[in-house]
Amino acid sequence: MSENKSSPDSRSRIARRVFPDGVDPDPRFTLANERTFLSWIRTALAFIGGGIAVEAFTSEIFGTGLRATLSIVLMVIGFILAAGAAVRWHRIESAMRRKTSLPLPLIIPIVSLASALGAGLLVLVFAGLL
Q: Any stretches that span the bilayer, and where are they (predicted)?
């Protein structure tokens, strides 16, 4: 069954289900939102890769418990960032479709805090305090 392009809503069924209200924003804004989403995904993959690298390559530097903990923390942060990126993408796309104010980027404090804690932990480890 073909869709009628002259119908009021010629979007796919999935698009209508994910974004039931509002109008399509300028494609440039949607594409910018997608690029931002992909940037957050790259950051999440970097955290996950860092966690894997810590576990695989730092057995001479860290003890088993600290290495496993640091590795798990980095990977969990990566998973949280990936999920947060998807939620952020959807919230922004919905706001653009409804022509409302964009939501605050709550994912940024998470990245900042995680990076600061990770850097502080590494300083403590290399200073011999952990």
A: 37-58, 70-90, 102-129
